[in-house]
Amino acid sequence: MLPCDTLIRNASVLDGTGATAEVLDVALCGDRICAVGPSLSFTAASVIDAEGLTLTPGFIDVHTHDDIAVLRNPTMLPKISQGVTTVIVGNCGICAAPVRLQGDPPDPMNLLGAADDFRYLTFASYVEAVHAAQPAVNVAALVGHTSLRNNHMDRLDRVATDAEIAAMRAQLEEALAQGALGLSTGLAYASANAASTAEVIAIAQPLASAGAIYTTHLRTETDAILDALDEAFTIGRTTRVPVIVSHLKCAGIANWGRSDDVLNALDAARTDQPLGFDCYPYAAGSSTLDLKQVDERILITVTWSKPHPEVAGQPLKAIAEAWGTTQLDAARRLQPAGAIYHSISQADMERILAHPATMIGSDGLPYDPRPHPRLWGTFPRVLGHLSREQQLIPLPTAVHKMTALPAQRFGLARRGLVREGCFADLVLFDAAKIIDTATFADPITPATGIAAVWVNGTLSYQATTPTGNRSGRFLPRQRIQWV
Ligand code: ZN
Ligand code: CU
Q: Exposed/middle/buried for 116, CB within 10 Å: 0-12, 13-18, 19+?
């Protein structure tokens, strides 16, 4: 009998490919899976009887704003408690590095942390900080276009000059050499909206030869979403780089029902360029409080406000009534502030999530004092609510969307699969019980039904408690092989 460190016996294994479950044993040696098969003959210091439980690859949260959270709160309870073993940070144009601030972080960089959290002048210094913090989950990082703009421009409400573009491009190139995954944009935000398509294309030049990726929070997710998608496709085709459209949705009541058009546009473009997209399983979005998104017909909840912290958790409508003013005026007085917008139709969200190419990304905001429940609930909500209860997608498909599919899209080699030789990022859960418990009223609460989580072979979370062992790594970019 061969020795291994951990032997998981008789688990119902979903390997991440979308294949149906098989009852198998899985042996872990060091940070790897060293064998997968029926009735393995291994001896192990730790033997786990997993009969009746489902074992899958650790979940990859492709859309996060955990840039600073992985350093300040390395236990990463909101994520490890869901079975997430890898987070991709630096989304929506905002990142922690490379950053040089003058004063406060601009909107929406203020979603990540306070001014003194931004201490990483180079991407390499951020990588070092991740090593030093040793978070419970693996971290891969994009460089944000808005952060680059803020490093090199005196004001963000204009297009960058050629000299500024050259400086941003050089900084991106340096970060890519230090392991960055690619470039993200947040073109909808005022801090990047003045950037032209040509500005983004010029900055993105180093991506193709580095085998890197482009992710985008589209210029708009409302009326002109098809134009915004076209812009993203153009940027990808012109620079010869794979594109990921972040948190795909049709926002605003006027756009409810347009998910078919949006998915058709993506499917058409997918036939001639590499394209991916992600989605979170809620009919509400969250970000900074944006005056353009104030609509009296939808519920908007204020999650934080710098001048008025006392109103956190209250509907904007109630705040406006108490102040004897309109919601728009109240929103203006609350700035800077954060909000949850119930501005998505459930049917559109479900249609997008069920599309075979859609990955799962939480878009959780860990720095928010009253975060959208997606921060703690996304993955168990897909598995327990949308797959088991609503039967929107079969369980093996749901697992594929959060494991092998994102690993392939983001070039995370040897992750996202239960296979010999792969890293032992694994989740063991009760498929009949797994469910999110975080709600809009009570958002900071862990999911139930997760039995155990391993990260790089280390048991990191067990039956609702972190084990205290953290073994996440920084994952430098590998060339993205896209088929
Ligand atoms: Zn975004
Ligand atoms: Cu985001």
A: exposed
Residue 134 Cα to ligand 2 midpoint, Å, equals 23
CATH code where residue 226 lies: 3.20.20.140
Same domain, 77 and 187: yes
Q: What is the mean pLDDT of the chain?
A: 97
Distance 447 CA to ligand 2 centre (A): 22
Residue 347 counted as domain residue: yes
Instruction: Assess if residue 373 is contained within a domain.
Output: yes
Q: In this structure, are residues 148 and 171 in contact, taking their beta carbons and an 8 Å threshold?
A: yes
User: Full-prediction pTM beyond 0.90?
Assistant: yes
Where among 319, 340, 361 does a domain terminate?
340
Gap from CA of 43 to ligand 1 centroid (Å) = 47
Output the CA 465–ligand 1 centroid distance in Å: 30
- Provide the residues around ligand 1 (an ion) whose CB is within 5 A: 92, 217
Residue 185 Cα to ligand 2 middle (Å): 10
State the distance from the centre of ligand 2 to the C-alpha of 435, rounded, in angstroms.
23
Ligand nearest to the CA of 220: 1
Q: CA angle 263-200-375, nearest 5°?
A: 55
Backbone angles phi, psi at 435, to 5 degrees: -160, 150
> Residue 426 is part of a domain; what is its CATH number?
2.30.40.10
Give the whole-angstrom CA distance, residue 375 versus residue 199. 32
Using the mean position of ligand 2's atoms as its centre, give its distance from the Cα of residue 91 in Å.
5
Q: What's the confidence (pLDDT) of residue 482?
A: 63
| Distance (Å) from CA 13 to ligand 1 centroid | 33
pLDDT digits (tens, 9 = 90+) for 109-150: 999 999 999 999 999 999 999 999 999 999 999 999 999 999
Q: How far is the CA of 365 from the centre of ligand 1 (A)?
A: 11
pLDDT tens sequence across 385-420: 999 999 999 999 999 999 999 999 999 999 999 999
* Residue 479: predicted pLDDT: 82
* Structural domain boundaries, residue 192: 57-285+341-409
- Written as one string, the DSSP assignment of 133-199 is H--SSEEEEPEEHHHHHHHH-S-SSSPPPHHHHHHHHHHHHHHHHTT--EEEEETTSHHHHT--HHH
